[in-house]
Each structure stands twice: as C-alpha cells, then as structure tokens.
C-alpha cells in the first residue's frame, strides 16, 4: 500500500471519530449547563436563607463561618471536572486533525522530491518530464497569500465543535496549540476563528476581520470597509 493510499484509508475514519467526539462534547455541555442551573438556584436559595437567619438573629453575621452547603460545593467541583473533560476532548480532536495534516505535508514533500528527481533525470536523458496535474501546495501554506482577494472565509483552526462554540461557563481559557504555519488575519494578527467579515476594498492589506475585533455581531448588509480603508478613502476625498 502506497503512502497516499494509506493516508486516504486513515482519512476515511476521521469524520466518524470527530463526529463521536463532537457528540460527546454536546452531551457534556448539556450536563454542565444543567448542573450550573441547579447550582445557581441552590446558591441563591442558601444566600436568601442566610440573610433571613441574620435578620432574625439565628445566624451570627460572621463571614468566616458562613459558607455554602456541601451539596453546592460538590456541584461546583463537578462543573469544573466536566469543563476539564470538554477541554481534553477538544485538544484530542485538534491533535487528531493535526496528525492527518502533518501526514499530508509529508506526502506532498515526498511528491515534490519525486517530481524534482524526474525533472533532473529528464534533463540528463533529454526526455521531457511529465508535468504535475496542477500546482502542489503544502496542506498548511499561506492560503491565497496577501496579494489577492480570498473567495471564501478562512477556515477555523481549532475544531471545538462543528456548531458555534458554547460560551465558556467556567471562564477557563482554552489554550489550544496553534500551528505556527497557519495564516493570520485581522488587526489582532491572529488565526481564523468564529465569524469573520471581508473588507470590500480589493486593495485591503488585511482582507479578513473577526467580528469582535471590528465591533460586529452579524454580517453587514451591502459593502463593508475596514477602518484603515475607510480612513484612506476619506483622505482621498479630502484632497
């Protein structure tokens, strides 16, 4: 079995594996939301009970001895454990996709070397080398470069879920590894993630922007220009 055939065979199982991980992530998220809802109600009720006890004189207003019940604390610890498991699943999904990308990069590198050897042998023997069917490109090269307009929104780097990512309930930063070869966009000079909008100026140097970085919540209607291009446009009008 050639390297390409082996890569294709491994790639066929990738969608099924990712689908299972995403399904588990959704189940964990539902459980986490339910536990958080119960814990919020319990804590609110306990706070109200403490206030009534202090007003009636049954509870000493000493913050050092006032605490939530063990049930409330256990629910909070359980929420943290579920959040940690979600992060672990997201990292596993990322590593799985990253492994396949690295395998593809290896194949393309090997393919380029074979083409180079063919051209060298053809130059020695005088026989024209067979041209490849299109330009080969690394699986994680610069997408389209900065010189031309991109036709589609850049793909998101980290596949936490196929659906929009849920709000991080614990406030924990999902510090997932990012490939240094991934192209960067926007004023923040970060990789693609979430919803993005393209500047309609064909000469825009940045081209793509994250919604949050430009203060958008939904796709703008009509043409949209980034602040840099808008300022340049206004300066030209003022001349």
From TrEMBL:
Protein name (record): PHD finger protein ING
Quaternary structure annotation from Swiss-Prot or TrEMBL: Component of an histone acetyltransferase complex. Interacts with H3K4me3 and to a lesser extent with H3K4me2.
Primary localisation category: nucleus
Coiled coil residues, start to end: 18-45
Endoplasmic reticulum as UniProt keyword: no
Gene3D superfamilies reported in the protein's UniProt record: 6.10.140.1740, Zinc/RING finger domain, C3HC4 (zinc finger) (3.30.40.10)
UniProt domain PHD-type: residue ranges: 183-232
PROSITE patterns: ZF_PHD_1, ZF_PHD_2
Region (Disordered) location: 121-170
Organism this protein belongs to: Stylosanthes scabra
Compartments in which it is found: Nucleus
Family: Belongs to the ING family.
